[in-house]
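Journal club prep — side note

Before the paper discussion, L.F. wants everyone to see what a predicted structure for a comparable chain looks like in token form. Sequence:
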Amino acid sequence: MSPTLRRPTFEVAAFLLPFLRAPVSPPRSSLRPSRARHPRSAHPSCPQCRSLHLYKTARAVTVLGMHKVLPFDLYLVPEPSESDHKINLWKENGAEGAELVAENVSLKKAYTDYIKPGVMLYLKDDIKKSICEELKSLKGNDIPATYNNYVLLPAHTNTIKIKAQNRILPTSEFRHLALLREIHINLASPAAYWQISLDRAYQFIENGHPVEFDIRFKGSREKDHQQRLVAGPRDLWPWMHNHFPHLRPDFILKAMPEGTIFHVRPVSDGKHVKWVMAPPHVKVKSSNHFGDLTRRLFKIKEELKKSIAEGKQSELPKQMRRNLANQGHDSYSVTTGMAKGWMTDSAERWPPGVQTEEDETQRELIGPDSADRYMGHRPEKSRRALSKTPWLTRRKP
């Protein structure tokens, strides 16, 4: 018998097994799980997403859960002419290796002459993560001068599988947007990952998808809960963009398909730089348009500040509620995520025992479960609705 074949396992089901309480089976079968997991057992809790999604936040219809936008402000990318950094440009030739295209090129010349739709830029050599996440190490070791070789990447170098590809006609000038796609990268990301990420973004936009970019300085999450709520240094990203051009939003935007616009302009909290790119569509027909979602994003932020000041913003993080309570806001508590202002406002809108025709319509829209606490009694259901098997009931012809 071949050693790779698995020997069959025989188990004996004894008649007296329930009374003797002794297993009568080979030792080999005892290594396997004795029974499957009970279907009613509790599943492990799923962690909530704590990152900010600009596209979803700007299109939200409520400020509930939008507190992550508070430390973000509009970010103005410095002009390429403000940097005196020089880079070398290379071109990949497959098996022949890389070929030097230009040497000691300024960022302004690289942006004007070499970056164009379908030609993207990424760093040739990988930088260690321990160096990338410390600004002192980047400046002290002169990393920008050491790692100044960049590769020009043509679009469609990588094969990307896209669902419903060519669903939108490429000849249409303005079109509706497809599903959102996200790209998360940083300075420590490998060169191969940069290639795939940029090519994915290009092909997604080419097929009508909005793409949200998230470039972060540190890949690890802040361990201190207080530091998560505090914005980072504002002078970090201007220095990074003056010395690492492949991180610049304007370089990435110009390399995307022709006509691509900022659907949400770059914003930053000092730790991240985020923006949303999209092809021109029905509502946004020009690259000079400021973008409806950019204005709406900061409108959501202002409404959120107003809701917090009035004590009506529920489900805030525990550390944020602790800070608000220490500042004298009696509407917030560490023990509960419900704000007192929201509960008072809800009680005024739906006082117990008072039912009007308009309130009943509003409760039906909200749902019976959430309105039970404001109702004196549940409405009676018809017998037909309570029937267990209505499809078995005979009907007269």
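L.F.'s comment for the group: The domain at 69-287 is CATH 3.30.110.10 (Translation Initiation Factor IF3). Keep this in mind when we get to the figures.
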